[in-house]
Amino acid sequence: MSGKKTPAPVMELALEELEAILERAQVGAISLEEYTQLKALIYTFALLQEELQAKKTSIARLRQMLFGSSSERTREVFGEGAGDPETEASSEQAGGKGSLERKGRSESGVRRQGHGRNGAAAYAGARNVKIPHALLERADACPGCSKGKIYPLKEPAVRVRFRGMAPLQATVYECDRLRCNLCGEVYTAATPAGVGEEKYDETAAAAVGLMRYGIGVPHNQIEKLQGNFGIPLPSSTQWQLVEAAAHTYRPVHEAMQERAADGTVVFNDDTTMKVLGLTAEQRAAALGEDTAEERTGVFTSGIVSIGDGHRIALFFTGARHAGENLTEILKRRSQALPAPIQMCDGLDHNLPKEFETIVCRCVTHARRKYVEVAASFPEEVRFVLNTLKEVYKIDARARTQGLDPKQRLKLHQDESGPLMQALREWMTAQFAERKTEPNSGLGKAIRYMDHNWEALSGFLRTENAPLDNNITERALKKAIRHRRNSLFYKTLNGARVGDVHMALIHTAELNEVNAFDYMVALLRHPQQIAEHPSEWMPWNYQTTLESLSAGPDPPA
Hints:
- This protein is an alpha/beta fold.
- The protein has helices at residues 15-27, 32-54, 59-67, 74-77, 99-102, 202-215, 219-228, 235-261, 280-287, 289-294, 322-330, 363-371, 378-400, 405-432, 441-451, 453-456, 470-486, 492-510, 515-524, 526-531, 541-550; strands at residues 177-179, 186-188, 265-272, 299-307, 310-318, 341-344, 358-361.
- The longest helix is centred in the last third of the chain and has 28 residues, at 405-432.
């Protein structure tokens, strides 16, 4: 089609109907309705063709998106069966585990010890009931031999029993009331200790926040679930709980941003988001008048900072890109510290414009461009993927052996350096010897990697430099899950409430802390966290709680 035309509405047509129309077109004129159907089919095909060209994709890529496996492991890309297990793409900072490790299998495919059913110790939140023996006690005569005496074993016999209940439980307290028949005075029974006037306690707010922003269950779905259990919890009430909780969390959230600014390594990336009530004034306040007129997108930026052995995840939803949000974080950075290492993909809007960083590009993003053309260039892609697989195995070995940053760098220079050099020489030869067309899918993958080579190979020159941005990709899954399940935020304030909850939940998870217990502790100590928020990080709040329970030191 030569001109740009507005396509007709896409219609769903059965193959049998189309064949019948074609048969009638051979013997005579077709009806207006049949003409409309054929026209819709032609425009649908033209629209699909334009989309393929505009998105710079291929039929193979489209087929993979619709029907193929989401895995990018080498043996899955080439349709191979179980062979030599591949180390998953995860850097030291990402702290990921291989697929076999997640399935509890060793590289030989044999299930390892301790990866079966959960033991009783795994049910830390379960109610424990101790059951004494009905007939026997310590030092009783043995009923079997009548000569020995019985003594309790160290480990009891354990049975775990599940029962269904609503996520949020409710207790109705019926307090007796008595009235004097002479003076009319009413006397009401006192509620049990710990039961205050508030209808919803701290655990309720933490549970709703965790379900909403940690798991991605919309408020209306929680309302339906609670209603089916006979314990109604309106979505409006849920919003009031999480909004009030976010206000309590904010001092800790601010302290997390201060800590994140001083990190050694920072990761960042974007995903699209929708905020229905984002006004032009709010957009201008975030971007400035000139930029606000040019930009219409809304994003959730994920920033993960690693330093001092701790990991902090932050989320920012609005009109700014990841680089602009990182700029706001780095404004808090101590001037005495050197420039941080930054890991991101190849998009320039991930870079902070006002601050210098040691930029490293994501190897996984570069690798993915080869995966997309594997069907057309199997042998070439196999060489690239196998080379990068060996690099990741070396990085996994450094992590397993507990090497410090200097030792890890030396290991990569000694073993990964030759591999990467061979890959670079292979890339150069593809164009120099005219083995690959530069504008082909493989050529574009090579050009992307060549253009970003210095940043992609930063782990060969810089201590602590990661290989990929997988840790941010995983963090952004919380925002993506929200977008898929809830579709949008209604207002910018709602987006900020979600960002605060996601930051606390994911930071707790990154530091292997129970997110629910952590959030409950914060909600129970609003005054203390407002006064000393840095003492209420996921990795030190337990120590702070212990000091509070111990009370002040007695006078000397």
